[in-house]
Amino acid sequence: HEAPRRVKRAWVIPPISVSENHKRIPHLLVQIKSDKQQPGGVIYSIKGPGVDEEPLGIFSIDKFSGKVFLNAMLDREEHDRYRLRAFALDLGGVTLEDPTDLEIIVVDQNDNRPLFRQDVFTGHVVEGAEPGTCVMTVDATDADDPDTDNAALRYSILEQGAAGMFSINATTGEICTARPGLDRETMGVYNLTVQAADMSGDGLTTTAMAVIYLEDINDNPPEFTKEEFSMEVEEQAAGVDVGKVFVHDKDLAGSPSWLAKFTILEGDPEGAFAIRTDPHTNDGVLSVLKPLDHEVRDRFELTVSVQNERPLEPSAPGSPRALATVRVRVRDVNEAPAFRENPRRISVLEGTPPGTAITTYTASDPDTQQLQSLSYALLYDPAGWLQMDPRSGTVRTRRELLHPSAFLQGGWYIALVLARDDAEPPLSATGTLSIEILEVNDHAPQLQPPAGVLCGRPGRGGTLLLGATDDDRPPHGAPFHFQLSPQHPQLARNWSLARFNVTHAVLAVLAELPEGPYSLPLLLRDSGTPPREQQQLLNVSVCRCGRDGACLDGALAAASAGAGITLGALMIIVGSTVLLLVLAALGAARVRGRRRALRKGLLQRSRDDMRDNILNYDEQGGGEEDQDAYDINQLRHPELFSPRARPPLRRDAPLSSGTPMAPRKLPSSPSDIEEFINEGLEAADSDPSVPPYDTALIYDYEGSGSVASPLSSIVSSLTDEDQDYDYLSEWGPRFRRLADLYG
């Protein structure tokens, strides 16, 4: 068993203390030794932070003597201690001693001032706070060793004004109120200069600002700037501002302790005024809610109070100027006249004669203190029925008022009346005059129909339903009363009249009557007041009865032809009808004769071949060879040009009309050309595949040449000046232009 090795004291190195910021460089810190070899035979070295680790070059050692030197100034705030390792080797590099620790402690110096955490500290406290009310805390830091007095801080207030309203805790930095009497209205902001010092207040110092704001409380009531205010407003003005009442409040502008609230206490029992607060100026704005009338009341005296929206603090003193008197004068202006009764409703009997006074419609002028007169005029009188006195307002009829009329609405006639004063400028008012046109029973009922047919045998259909109409409106119309004329009592032996409903009655035969017409005088009466009645004739035709009680067909036709009409009138109607038919037949025959004469004259007067080509003059080309003409060969050889297919059916032609057979037989001699053309014309008129009869036939292409001479050669081929072309005017409207040129 080997005993533990003994370590020499000279090789065990205690901690070494060195002050930061040591300025004598290089500075010997310690010398290490090893007694394993003779002096000069040991090589020393050190390793660790400050030597071969960051920060480099701070420490060094003499490898032969073992002296350790400080080569740079130390900063405790960066490194408060260094731990190194020391080594001892012989000249051959063999370890003589085990590595030993070398600890270097940096001793603190008061080389750092305290630092506040912010340059400006802000705090708030209500005005009037009690002493000892803490507002805020300021704090600072010191980079020196906190275990020494180098970092022991003390706080103080260097400057806060003459009042000394705040104090600071030297150890904690808490700022509190020191005295009563904080008043925002006197001083709203306090600026304090605070200091922090180390070495328990005797070392290095630093300063900062502490700003303390006083929060407003409602300790100042609002006050009117004066006790009385005078204003003026026009009468009849509503919803307008009259004026302002001015107040002053020492509290913070814009806060609830500053905003004013106004109340009208007296002088406005009807609630004609209102007062509100101007949010920008805090003044009271008086306005009119209801129109004022100068003639009723020309001035008002209002008592107005003011207070804040936030209740006043109990400790705040009251204000003697919280009430004010507001005097408002109502200025007189011209007011428009007014119709007290609008609309005015009256009733007038229809048929009232012109010039009748029906009412007096006037207005009143509210301006009783002004000398003014009113004039009247009709502003709206659609039917022109009325006239009005411009001074008195009396309305008279201009013409007779009658039913029915397009200007009546449910029996009412509406007119507008204008009333105007003579002020400057004049004002006017409009009144509505509603006139009810009362119905007058001025029409007797009329029998409808005035004639009828019935079977002449009692109980076998011998009845006839009669009706009546009345131009009057209810209650002057139905129910109607039907009766046989009292002037002819003998009618009651053969006829009876019974009520069917309010507008109809039933006529019946009492005894069998022979066939023929009968005229019965009837008396019709309405239910008006007074009733109107009228005697009218009823033409009744009695027919021969059938088994079922109805008129036989022949009898009914004869009876119907004679019912309600005389024989002479019937003969006139029949004769007129026959005369019209004869005139129509003569006119048709005359037109047909003129058409045939025209066709015949066309062929007799025109003997040369100039009719063979009919030119289309709608297009004007560069010569006769440029004309699209109708080739006469199509008439001479229709089998070369006519399609064999059957033409389509023409819609405007009757179904029974025949279709000409093609090809037709050509004329054997030139004298037969007239018959040939007439046959072609008749075939064209009856052909369902061509346009209607009175439509001109237009050919798109009629050939580029012709063996016949064109119409343009009429003048060139005939040199006889005595040639007569008047017959062109007889050829119809299509040749009217040629007749004008050559006729």
Structural notes for this entry:
Residues 641-670 are annotated as: Disordered. Residues 10-116, 117-224, 234-339, 340-447, 462-552 form the Cadherin domain. InterPro entries: Cadherin, Cadherin-like_dom, Cadherin-like_sf, Cadherin_CS, Cadherin_Y-type_LIR, Catenin-bd_sf. The chain has 743 residues and is mainly beta. Among the domains are: 16-107, Immunoglobulin-like; 115-215, Immunoglobulin-like, CATH 2.60.40; 223-331, Cadherins (Immunoglobulin-like, Sandwich); 338-438, Cadherins (Immunoglobulin-like, Sandwich); 446-543, Immunoglobulin-like (Sandwich), CATH 2.60.40.60. It is built from 6 helices and 40 strands. It has a 4-stranded mixed sheet, with no helix packed on it. A 4-stranded mixed sheet has the order 9-16-15-12, with no helix packed on it. The chain is elongated. Residues 1-7, 555-570, 601-630, 640-662 and 708-720 have low confidence and may be disordered.
Supply the key terms:
disordered N terminus; repeat; transmembrane; Immunoglobulin-like; about 30% strand; metal-binding; 4-stranded mixed sheet; mainly beta; cell adhesion; about 750 residues; 40 strands; Cadherin-like_dom
Number of strands: 40
Strand share of the residues? 25-35%
The mean pLDDT is 80
| Radius of gyration from CA coordinates | 68 Å
CATH architectural type of the domain at 223-331: Sandwich
Number of helices: 6
CATH topology tier name of the domain at 223-331: Immunoglobulin-like
Helicity, in percent?
Answer: 10-25%
Which sheet architecture does the biggest sheet show? 4 strands, mixed
Head-to-tail CA distance between termini: 174 Å
Protein name: Cadherin-15
GO molecular function: beta-catenin binding; cadherin binding; calcium ion binding
Region (Disordered): 641-670
Keywords: Calcium, Cell adhesion, Cell membrane, Cleavage on pair of basic residues, Glycoprotein, Membrane, Metal-binding, Repeat, Signal, Transmembrane, Transmembrane helix
